């Protein structure tokens, strides 16, 4: 039975940090972040590749035992600590603060994903042309052997099973020769493409104006960027479902291949999709949760948001495979010939399909506008998470509205200048390099292990359960404890090791990267990971006193009166071993029923400093009231990854491991991260100060990965490029009459 309780005060924070002006804004921002391109270009393919409908079994199972618990953990930690993903660990497990720094590195790397917006914006502009330039071969960039989209003569193809991504197709040539201006390799960067640079500038300007006022402006922008993509998704679903051949594509998407469930790779793919689509272990959920009021019901948020994210991915699969079925029927090829994931799906296959539909400009505009909004939402939330976490590291120096605008402007300008390298002729090679090594499931699984070890074993799941109970009035069951302590770290550990076992050097279509690239890639891959142990070593070395005093910023959250029981000697010794030497000085209860916990930390010798606990926990005499709140969330990754993975790993059978891992892997980890941000109210670097300072390197590792991820703005550039051409009366990728097409290949 829920205990009635008074409204608890939120944790104190240095400086004016701000909060969401409404619950709706929090829901929309989180939804806009997690519902990303992956829902469109990854999930449907994963489902198709990994057993079709059978993939939903591991996906749903992992969503329950992995995604939801981790989502709850992260949002509750952020909400409780009111800190970013670095400083939140100071209140939970100081030794784990390196996690925050590792997350900071990852977030900085992921800034590169703004290129998805850039590409989409490029396509959007061209979509307004009377003739879509990717539909024809009469353009300056086409080669002599270019084939336009209306070349249906399958007799001359001799069962060619790679037609859709054939370099002679008008759509492929528009992508490679017109938009990218692709050079010979990563060592030939060439010149900056002015059109892409302009699109990049516009995307960063939009990002700046979205975050210049912090959560106040970000929440308002989310009404457009989070809601409108769903409207466009409905339009695209209605159109795709009525296309010829759509039923054949849907069958391939959903037909279960139960035999695929015996493949461990299907389960790891489902787990990776949960991590990616739920935005787990990135630190973003911690930051977004940190702007929630103390009594926000993050418990219910975890369930509703995770359910919406997975549901959006599933629906996106119908759209993707309806269109792929249409293409397969038009060109008389199998689904295998057109099933694709990533940029190849959204910037080649989809534009080609749009060119074949009635009103091609309209559908092209709808599609690329949806891509831009999905990518933009994910991107500006990522940038704001970095700014929040860095500001929380230095609250007195950086935490003010004016300084937030200055930091936002400087970060956007510097990122724009850095990302100009991605707008060069060889920029796509760098983008793929960062995507493959800088932002990977390798780091995601490592962060999941670290977070669960820090919270589940060091801070203690019982403490976290009490925190969530006090904030929401709902006490997580033993199921969540088992997920946080055992299943999530165990499953993530297996995925972490399998990544090393199945590792293959990066290869981009027909291009093989130089020999020095794998070395650079492993440096990028290991930089965030190594920050976590480095932080622990550095913290231990620099902290005065014996090893048991490590973690000077750790705090005693719940005392005997709050827990209802005396902590065991074992718990106390573990606490002292990992934390600084803390001595409980006093705890008082005010007239309003709020317990104010005070403690002092031994600094050097007998000199002691009294430090007030940053969290004031409200307890009533017997019971607590419950505030019932709910929310939902969705992102780009669900759209363009899942369909291909589903196709690749057994069609419908892929849904079995996907759903299973969503339950036991994705949802718990999603919950962990959002609750962490909500608890600490810090970014993905500083949040670790309140949880585990030694893990703060995780935040900086995230930061590096996020910097690598900046290159993904090229996806926006490409989409914008296609969108512009979509307004042509004839889609330029549909025929070979464009200047960029090669000469028509005669039979």
Automatic annotation (TrEMBL):
GO terms assigned for molecular function: gamma-aminobutyric acid:sodium:chloride symporter activity; metal ion binding
SS bond list: 137-146
Identification of the protein by name: Transporter
Organism listed in the record: Takifugu flavidus
InterPro entries with a match to the protein in the record: Na/ntran_symport (IPR000175), SNS_sf (IPR037272)
Spans traversing the lipid bilayer: 53-73, 104-126, 221-241, 274-291, 303-328, 362-386, 406-426, 446-466, 478-502, 522-542, 649-671, 700-725
Keyword annotations: Disulfide bond, Membrane, Metal-binding, Sodium, Symport, Transmembrane, Transmembrane helix, Transport
Subcellular location, record wording: Membrane
PROSITE patterns: NA_NEUROTRAN_SYMP_1, NA_NEUROTRAN_SYMP_3
Signal peptide (UniProt feature, chain positions): none
């Amino acid at each position: 039975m829920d205990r009635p309780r008074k409204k608890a005060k939120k944790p104190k924070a240095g400086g004016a940090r701000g909060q969401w002006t409404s619950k709706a804004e929090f829901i929309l921002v989180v939804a806009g972040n997690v519902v990303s391109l992956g829902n469109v270009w990854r999930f449907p393919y994963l489902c198709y590749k990994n057993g079709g409908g059978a993939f939903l079994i591991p996906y749903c199972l992992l969503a329950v035992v992995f995604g939801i618990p981790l989502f709850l953990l992260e949002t509750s930690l952020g909400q409780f600590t009111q800190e970013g993903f670095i400083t939140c660990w100071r209140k939970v497990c100081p030794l784990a603060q390196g996690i925050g720094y590792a997350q900071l590195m990852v977030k900085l790397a992921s800034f590169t994903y703004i290129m998805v917006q850039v590409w989409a914006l490029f396509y959007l502009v061209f979509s307004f042309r009377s003739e879509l330039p990717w539909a024809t071969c009469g353009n300056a960039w086409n080669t002599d052997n270019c084939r336009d989209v209306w070349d249906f003569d399958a007799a001359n193809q001799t069962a060619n099973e790679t037609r859709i991504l054939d370099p002679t197709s008008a759509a492929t040539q528009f992508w490679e020769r017109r938009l990218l201006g692709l050079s010979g390799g990563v060592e030939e960067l060439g010149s900056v493409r002015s059109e892409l640079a302009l699109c990049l500038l516009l995307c960063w300007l939009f990002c700046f104006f979205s975050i210049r006022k912090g959560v106040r402006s970000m929440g308002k922008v989310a009404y457009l960027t989070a809601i409108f993509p769903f409207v466009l998704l409905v339009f695209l679903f209605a159109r795709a479902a009525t296309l010829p051949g759509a039923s054949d594509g849907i069958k391939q998407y959903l037909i279960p291949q139960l035999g695929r469930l015996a493949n461990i790779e299907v389960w790891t793919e489902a787990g990776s999709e949960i991590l990616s689509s739920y935005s787990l272990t990135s630190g973003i959920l911690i930051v977004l949760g940190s702007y929630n009021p103390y009594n926000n019901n993050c418990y219910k948020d975890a369930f509703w948001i995770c359910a919406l994210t997975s549901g959006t991915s599933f629906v996106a699969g119908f759209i993707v495979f309806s269109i792929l079925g249409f293409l397969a029927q038009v060109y008389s090829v199998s689904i295998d010939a057109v099933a694709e994931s990533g940029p190849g799906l959204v910037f080649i296959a989809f534009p080609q399909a749009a060119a074949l539909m009635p009103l091609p400009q309209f559908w092209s505009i709808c599609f690329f506008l949806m891509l831009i909004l999905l990518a933009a939402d994910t991107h500006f939330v990522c940038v704001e998470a970095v700014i929040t976490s860095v500001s929380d590291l230095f609250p007195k120096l950086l935490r003010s509205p004016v300084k937030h605008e200055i930091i936002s402007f400087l970060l956007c300008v510097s990122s724009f200048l850095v990302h100009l390298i991605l707008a060069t002729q060889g920029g796509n090679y760098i983008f793929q390099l960062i995507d493959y090594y800088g932002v990977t499931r390798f780091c995601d699984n490592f962060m999941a292990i670290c977070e669960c070890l820090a919270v589940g074993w060091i801070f203690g799941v019982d403490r976290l359960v009490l925190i969530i109970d006090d904030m929401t009035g709902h006490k997580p069951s033993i199921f969540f404890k088992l997920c946080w302590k055992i299943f999530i770290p165990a499953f993530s550990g297996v995925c972490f090791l399998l990544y090393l076992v199945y590792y293959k050097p990066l290869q981009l279509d027909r291009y093989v990267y130089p020999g020095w690239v794998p070395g650079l890639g492993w440096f990028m891959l290991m930089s965030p990971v190594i920050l976590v142990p480095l932080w622990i070593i550095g913290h231990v070395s620099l902290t005065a006193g014996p090893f048991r005093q490590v973690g000077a910023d750790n705090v005693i959250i719940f005392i005997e009166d709050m827990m209802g029981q005396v902590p065991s000697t074992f718990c106390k010794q573990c606490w002292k071993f990992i934390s600084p030497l803390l001595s409980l000085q006093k705890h008082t209860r005010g007239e309003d029923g709020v317990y104010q916990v005070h403690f002092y930390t031994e600094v050097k010798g007998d000199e002691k400093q009294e430090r007030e606990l940053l969290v004031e926990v409200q307890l009533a005499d017997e019971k607590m009231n419950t505030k019932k709140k709910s929310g939902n969330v969705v992102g780009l990754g669900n759209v363009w990854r899942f369909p291909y993975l589903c196709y690749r790993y057994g069609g419908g059978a892929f849904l079995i491991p996907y759903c299973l891992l969503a339950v036991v892997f994705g949802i718990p980890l999603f919950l962990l991260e959002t609750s962490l941000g909500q608890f600490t109210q810090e970014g993905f670097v500083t949040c670790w100060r309140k949880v585990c300072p030694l893990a703060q390197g995780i935040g900086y590792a995230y930061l590096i990965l996020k910097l690598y991820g900046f290159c993904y703005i090229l996806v926006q550039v490409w989409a914008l490029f296609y969108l512009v051409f979509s307004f042509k009366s004839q889609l330029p990728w549909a025929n070979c009459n464009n200047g960029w097409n090669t000469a028509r290949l005669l039979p």
